[in-house]
Request: fold
Amino acid sequence: MKFGVVVFPGSNCDEDIIYTLQHIMGQDVVRLWHKDKDLQGADFIVLPGGFSFGDYLRSGAIAKFSPIMQEIISFANKGGNVLGICNGFQILTEAGLLPGALLQNKNQKFICANTYIKAETNDSLVTSQIDLNKALKIPIAHGEGNYFADADTLKKLDDNDQVLFRYCDYNGNITAESNLNGSINNIAGVSNKNRNVFGLMPHPERASNSLLANDDGLILFESILSTVY
Amino acid sequence: MENQELSTLETAKELGLIPEEYDRIKEILGRTPNFTELSIFSVMWSEHCSYKNSIVWLKKLPNKGAHLMAEAGEENAGLVDIGDGLGCCFKIESHNHPSALEPYQGAATGVGGINRDIFTMGARPIAQLNSLRFGSIENDRTKWLLKGVVKGIGDYGNAFGVPTVGGEVFFDECYQINPLVNAMSAGIVKAGETVSATSYGVGNPVYIVGSATGKDGIHGAAFASKDITEDSVNDLPAVQVGDPFQEKLLLEASLEVIKTGAVIGMQDMGAAGIICSNSEMSAKGKHGMRIDLDKVPVRQENMKPYEILLSESQERMLIVVEKGKEALVEAVFDKWDLNCAIIGEVTDTERLQYYAKGELVADVPADDLVLGGGAPVYHREYREPAYFQEFKKFNIDDVPLPKDLREVAQHLIAHPNIASKRWVSDQYDSMVGTATMTDNRPSDAAVVAVKGTNKAIALTVDCNGRYVYADPHVGTAIAVAEAARNIVCAGGEPSAITNCLNFGNPYNPEVYWQFVGAIKGMSEACLKFETPVTGGNVSFYNQSSDEGAVFPTPTIGMLGVLENAADMMTLDFKATDDLIYLIGESVNDIASSEYLASYHKIAASPAPYFDLEKEYTMQQTVKQLIANKLIVSAHDVSDGGLYITLLESAMPNNFGFAIETDSEIRKDAFLFGEGQGRVVVSVKPEQQAAFIESMATSETEFSYLGVVTSSGNVVDDEMYDTTAHAKSIYDNVFHNYLGD
Reply:
């Protein structure tokens, strides 16, 4: 499978996701520069974490105007698979490919910490193989990861089974204490209605190497690879 | 030049020069300098750039080692061979004075500056650390400073995309007005792909790249070389403003431009801006430069020549490029949408000649501006302060043994110098790069894997200013020893150090005595541990007019190497019934401990017990135990003493401990004394015999303390606390003072 990882100016988790896909998952990866207008035949697009354009104005607000985004939007509209992690998730909401928005964390500080998340559905490319009762330890690192959507949108997310992950405690209980950034209904990740665009704030690529004593994130990548192609 | 206003001695004094220096400048030029030229000399001869009051002693530091790829002072940062054809480039630097006035930008630009020192040499930064000192945490100004500094470091370092993997935070009244903000960075470069800060080749173009030049930070270097006073707020324009996004682009573009092979030399612009990089690169390459200041991209109109030359606007680089390869360079900066302007060319004059609007506005010899060239060098007088002998009269018998040592334990756990720094570290991205091995497995030093190899580097910053104040020589030797101990406890081999020497006013002989003592102590310890000094930074004038000098604080940043990353050692207890041993000697000593200082409120005591030879031997023993896989945890005894060490090993996995004290030693000294040279290890019961056999053949003392238990903190059968309760206090001290 050929993954395309987009590099925006200010992306800083691009090399981490490339390392995970290439060296740990053994996949082909192409780097897609934000000024490119060609996805180079990638089957699956990843928008990495970081601070695209310095997160100036608003996280992801400038990145959505990069030339490559036009290609990605049309790729997604044709059913192509796109995953946004952290800043990538923020860009996808800004670009209108995913519902909701990411607000400043409730404590108004950047938070880098291990969190636990629980998959809500197996009906998605990134969660197909995940035990829905298992709390996965996946770290967050963001200042604006407080997911928000209005009541109508939340209802649609639930009705259409679009919530991918919620923050939980070590035992899998969805509690207020485990929701560090203050996301509405503990939402950590969502998909679009067509189930081909995915976004999450936690970083599975930071939990995919036994050398770092945490490989809970591998199951997301294994899910992607087991489901398609 | 005729149209340029000539300077006067009065102006020279206002710029921080002394009369003898002004005379010397006239002698060098053979005429009276104009204002622009005088400004140039004033910043280049400031303490910050010239090290004029410290270089005599800095040269005495051990700076040799077979593994050093660049000697101290030779390049922007130290460069150490870590094997596999790789070098580690690392350095620590202060940003104390800017942070005292504007904590957010002061700290942020400190992070930016130290990272530029690393990537200007061609190395990609992979880890950052910082060492912070503040006044009392209960003080509102301290809270404002702490919040601003931490947010500044976080916002800059997080966006830049290099993990902040370690550091220290320490509070004492002496830092009330003048906090210390020291930032460290370490990067990796392939041997042979480094870039030097040099300039040569007549006719080669000189580029300025990155951000445009504005009026921020003018005379910043001179500002850093003065005492902080109430008037310092008037120096606010001397504080620079940082843009981590530009820095990230500059990092990628700089490393990319090096690959073109077009670069002759490169240096970042930090203190003293364009003039500093022009003069240092030209002096090193024994050439001159002709620079047209009208070609420098500026942020505002009508900037005066001296403003352009001295501006400390951040995120800029000076690059000398091989003539004919301009297109290769410009393509890279075009890709990254960064400014890239030719501002002049290399000449054979060895002089720096600056033009504005077609007129020569300054003409100065490069070599006379720089350290090692014509910059002044002073031997300062020094004198032992009276307190030094007074402190030595301390006698532990004069200190009453508290009735309830459980209360002492509670006091220490809740003290901000001991308690968890999670409030701080959670604001730093410690995981970006997916190479930080100590996020999920705590260890005495930060351990970062070097991708593409089996290796890891171990990094730590250490200094206890209270020890150094009590005895500069011993206290600084302890700082080096503790750093080495931390590296060893993490499974690493100590390799080399960088230092950040934070002291008061060097013209005060008693302050200078502290400086000299610190240099001597550092030298002695670095020779013993075979960790040469690769460079660093001197920050004098850390004092305020009303409170005197800060504790002398020579922060040690140490690099260690793990040949095999998987051999990392961790500090946490692993299972109940594992046996706890103390490696090293228990002594009847509470001198300069946090316990003595904050519980008994006794400041007058010498540095804690320290024996360099025994410390060294002890560390070799711990290395052997790790190599032979005879222990499952190792944690050094430092601030707060043995009890805190045990608790810190117990907390990560929610274990407890039950230990026995030694009747030969006062119980408070046993539990809370900070005598050096000790490490707490835990041993699997089935390995006890092999462990004891191994220890018996070593020359290091060791003693059985007790066992790992499920939850209690038990001393001599007395329940002091539960780990869960202690942790609930320990984890929330900062939050209680500072809010969520």
Q: What stands out?
A: Chain B has 26 helices and 27 strands. The first helix of chain B runs from residue 9 to 14.
